[in-house]
Amino acid sequence: MSDRKTVVDSPIGPLTLVADDDGLRGVFMESHRHLPAWVEEARLDAAGFDEVLAQLEEYFAGDRKEFDVRLSVTGTPFQRRVWDALVEIPYGSTWSYGQLAAAVGVPGAARAVGLANGRNPVSIIVPCHRVIGASGSLTGYGGGVERKKLLLDLENGVLPL
């Protein structure tokens, strides 16, 4: 399999999309923390990204609440459990790290869940931005807390992008 990538403009800045023959592997923002080495190694090739681009455009327009693109993510079994739980957080809602830990069956493991959440390779599509601190604070986000706020505001109808 050969990874390919493209960089596209979005209302929250450039997004780097990475895919292989099985599906979408990653969505990364400019200056993204925890950028896997395979992103840099992927060859530039915009072919095959039409569906994800259309769905992202609908999302940023406020017309899409869930994504249904084929994913090809890799991670530990625990990370995958956390990422699977993220898609259960309803559009426009937030969960605390503790709520997410309880949802994956490890109450009290908010820190471990936070680390797995931070390694989510498909930002926006798998909505890691919907996880916040127990106090309601917008804690860390791979794409930056300011982008997290923009995405949450978009979903709550506060800020049209």
TrEMBL record:
The miscellaneous annotation reads: This enzyme catalyzes only one turnover and therefore is not strictly catalytic. According to one definition, an enzyme is a biocatalyst that acts repeatedly and over many reaction cycles.
Enumerate the PROSITE patterns for this protein: MGMT
Going by the UniProt record, its keywords in alphabetical order are: Cytoplasm, DNA damage, DNA repair, Methyltransferase, Transferase
**This chain belongs to which protein, by name?**
Methylated-DNA--protein-cysteine methyltransferase
Q: Which family does it belong to?
A: Belongs to the MGMT family.
A Pfam family it matches? Methyltransf_1N
EC number(s) per entry: 2.1.1.63
Compartment list? Cytoplasm
Q: Give the GO cellular component terms, alphabetically.
A: cytoplasm
Q: Where is the active site?
A: 128
GO biological process annotation, one example: DNA alkylation repair
User: Domain of life of the organism in this record?
Assistant: Bacteria
Q: Which reaction does it catalyse?
A: a 4-O-methyl-thymidine in DNA + L-cysteinyl-[protein] = a thymidine in DNA + S-methyl-L-cysteinyl-[protein]; a 6-O-methyl-2'-deoxyguanosine in DNA + L-cysteinyl-[protein] = S-methyl-L-cysteinyl-[protein] + a 2'-deoxyguanosine in DNA
What does this protein's UniProt record list under function? Answer: Involved in the cellular defense against the biological effects of O6-methylguanine (O6-MeG) and O4-methylthymine (O4-MeT) in DNA. Repairs the methylated nucleobase in DNA by stoichiometrically transferring the methyl group to a cysteine residue in the enzyme. This is a suicide reaction: the enzyme is irreversibly inactivated.
- Domain called Methylated-DNA-[protein]-cysteine S-methyltransferase DNA binding: residue spans: 77-156
Task: Using the record's annotation, list all stretches that form the Methylguanine DNA methyltransferase ribonuclease-like domain.
Answer: 5-72
Q: Which NCBIfam families match?
A: ogt (TIGR00589)
User: GO molecular function terms here?
Assistant: methylated-DNA-[protein]-cysteine S-methyltransferase activity
